[in-house]
Specification:
Ammonium transporter fold; mainly alpha; about 0% strand; single chain
Length: about 425
Amino acid sequence: MKKVTFALVSLVLFSIPAAFADDIDGANTSWVMTSTALVLLMTIPGLSLFYAGLVRVKNVLSVLMQCFSITCVVSILWLILGYSLAFSDGNPFIGGLSNIFMASIQEDSMVGDIPESVFAMFQLTFAIITPALIVGAFAERMRFSAMLLFSSLWLLLVYVPITHWVWGGGWLGTLGLMDFAGGTVVHITAGVAAMVAALVMGTRMGFPKTPMPPHNLAMTITGAGMLWVGWFGFNAGSALAANGDAGMAMLVTHLSAAAGAFTWMCIEWIKYGKPSALGAVTGMVAGLGTITPASGFVGPAGGLVIGIMAGLVCFHATLFLKQKLGLDDSLDVFPVHGVGGALGTILTGVFASASLGIFSGQGYSVGVVMDSQVGVQAIGVLASATYTAIVTFILLKLIDMIIGLRVSEEEETQGLDLNQHNERGYDFNG
């Protein structure tokens, strides 16, 4: 009798993981796990090196530290509250509290045919890089404590709600907004927040009269290369499957990045007589950000056109904001990510048409797209930009009242590496 009971128990125990294994698509799970690592690579070390090379030598360590610390604090907040509010059942504007501390995620929890733990981690990497992008707007002048508090509150009050609107069952997703990998959720929110932060913080001391060139373009280009590679996980991974959508997203992502970089170089070549390395990598990022919302919906020729338009529009947006308006968005977050994200979100409604010949994407007649989908895309842009601007402004003003946003003039002159961290990025006496 004991032998029979043991055999029955053993059969039940061994059948549970076997049944669970049958529900998992191994190829899809492997691809999303790989994509997760690629997106995290985009922040540390990709974005960290990209930004650190663009600032002056006295602030290089502060930028690296900001990106690194945002990775830590966002990860903790995503576990405690962020994931639940973004993706749990709630109302059209925010998710519920049923999954705080990821309470319902077990080894056998599934999202489609991949483990929910993999999905939650993949989405976490998006939540990490979005506030990290904003760092470029207030680089070289925001206090470290203010940056941590702002990034934490901004994640919960801006990023999480808009994620729910678009991907978590909220009102923009229900309306039919097409945002494959984050044109609204990531790039418009980060870009608009960056512009508001630059306006509230004011310009760096000496801007624009004092030259403030990048201290290490080799570092920036190294980071840019990591961003380009990591973006395949960002866009192609958003298919949540190893399928044709992922393959097409990867292809159009690469083409848009190449077209954005080459277009920016050509414009500089014509305008200034020489193309710059900084212009090439900035155009690449513009191409990547602009194709992000469209990446799973458009074809290769559409991706090429979107990349060309990204280089053209974002180049002139950068010049206009700095030279005409005098906005000290230190590392051009708004003209590249904000303008690029908005442009790509609108163009998704055009190039997703199945009636554009070699420029076609999938699934819509040109009449339907032009009559309705572009309108839906515009609503998504306006709603995410307006909400982000209002909440970001309120947060910055409150934090300034409580602990102060900006370092003193003496600290800014000395550099944030020493006065915020008591360390130097480089030791020239070693």
